[in-house]
Write a structure and sequence with these properties.
A hairpin with a 2-residue loop joins strand 3 and strand 4. With about 120 residues, this protein is of the alpha+beta class. It has one helix and four strands. The chain is rod-shaped and about 95 Å long. The chain has one domain. A four-stranded antiparallel sheet has the order 1-2-3-4.
Length: about 120
């Protein structure tokens, strides 16, 4: 065996180090992006639950009448409620109800219709 072929050259070792470094960087970035996506999904799910809860209270804790309300839900969440008349017939009114939970630069909006007395 010749001595000039007896081992890795410095260039081969450096190329292997660069490839291993790039692979590590890609894996780290993929893990970081996955953790960020999981955190964003958790915040979105929390916003949906908060909006559902606020929507469930409409008509029981909040009077059915056309109005726009806003408030702070804590934890970086803010809500907006919009109740508008869709149709009125006699002493019953169909209301369009929209609840929006805002968190950071994102938001979740839930809409429904509720039947209530004419105000």
């Amino acid at each position: 065996m010749r001595t000039d072929e007896a081992g890795f050259t410095l260039l081969e070792v450096m190329a292997a180090f660069v490839i291993a470094s790039l692979a590590t960087l890609v894996l780290y970035q993929a893990g970081f992006n996955g953790a960020a996506a999981a955190a964003a999904a958790a915040r979105t799910q929390e916003a949906v639950v908060r909006a559902q809860s606020r929507l469930a209270s409409i008509g029981t804790l909040t009077r059915m009448q056309p109005e726009q309300l806003t408030g702070d839900d804590g934890g970086g969440f803010h809500w907006q409620l919009n109740i508008a008349v869709d149709q009125a017939a006699g002493n019953l009114t169909l209301y369009d109800v929209q609840v929006t939970e805002i968190f950071g630069n994102r938001h979740v909006t839930l809409t429904t219709q509720r039947l209530g007395p004419t105000s």
